[in-house]
TrEMBL record:
Taxonomic source organism: Veillonella dispar DORA_11
GO molecular function: transmembrane transporter activity
Membrane topology: Multi-pass membrane protein
Taxonomic lineage of the native organism: Bacteria, Bacillati, Bacillota, Negativicutes, Veillonellales
The keyword Cytoplasm belongs to this UniProt entry's keyword annotation: no
Protein name (record): Iron chelate uptake ABC transporter, FeCT family, permease protein
GO cellular component: plasma membrane
Keyword Nucleus (UniProt): no
Alphabetical list of SUPFAM superfamilies matching this protein: ABC transporter involved in vitamin B12 uptake, BtuC (SSF81345)
Membrane-spanning segments: 46-73, 85-108, 114-134, 146-167, 187-206, 236-260, 275-295, 302-323
GO BP terms: siderophore-iron import into cell
Family annotation (Pfam families): FecCD
Compartment(s) where it occurs, according to its Swiss-Prot or TrEMBL record: Cell membrane
The family this protein is said to belong to: Belongs to the binding-protein-dependent transport system permease family. FecCD subfamily.
Keywords for this protein: Cell membrane, Membrane, Transmembrane, Transmembrane helix, Transport
Amino acid sequence: MFIIIGLIICAVSFVTDIIVGPASLTLSDVWLALIDPAEVSKNAYVIIWSIRLPTAIMALLVGASLGIAGAGMQTILDNPLSSPYTLGISAGAGFGASLMVVVGASALEFLGVFMVPFGAFVFASLTSFFIYSINKIKNFSSETMILAGIGMMFLFQALQSLMQYMASPEALQNIVFWTMGSLAKANWVNISIVLIVLAIMLPLMMRESWRLTALKLGDEKASGLGVNVESLRVKVFAFISIITAVAVSFVGTIGFIGIVGPHIARMLVGEDQRYFLPLSAVCGMAILSLASIASKMLVPGAMFPIGIVTAIIGVPFFFSLVLTRKRSYFK
């Protein structure tokens, strides 16, 4: 029921996202452009098919990716503050993108328009691998793992500032634009890549839903039910890392979707992963789509980077979690 309601909200926000923008369009313009392009003006056709439709679709796909990634992280680490953002994965992607903008043009010119996403993907993946490796060696608690992720986030932000200091004015503008998080550069190629990865990883995550539900009972009880806890954590962490790395490599740093989406889903359906995982994805879709609409409505005629909007929404929610969670999470 909640998943169906969420999908209806996503559908409404998706259409609204296409309509809203500096150029005035009506619902009939959108409908005709989708089913009978010959009946709309050339300008309306270009605006819808080249700009607004890719942006609206990318908002849904990235929102779903970050939502399910946050849900998976919170489950395997048993900590409500876990997300791709708080574990430093998004910051790693930001540094990778900045590095490519500043020094990659000469060394990796053959990658063309995929050079910046490639750098973001590589460093997001390396960050995930590093966080998991130190946990494997030291057997950290989930709280310590998050602290390690926050440490990585500060490190990458410092390195990113160094890249900005070294960058030319043109490169600096590109870095700042990317790190603010934006859907403006969405195109059909990027959408296809994110869609394929999500279409592969989401079913793989859902296959583990029973084991993840058992894991919420505790490692010992899950093992008693026949769950290989270590293997499960490795697989799910790998799935999450791939989903996150691909999503943020095209849109930049978008924070808090991986925290807010899963918490809304948890309040609605609890910890049963059969419903929690897909509803987290749907909540992420709805939140990012609504944020995309808000980014175009804050100032008429202007479009704010969507990362700013999600931060404005997410930071108060994050503080409310910190202030209201049980003390056991922070011992």
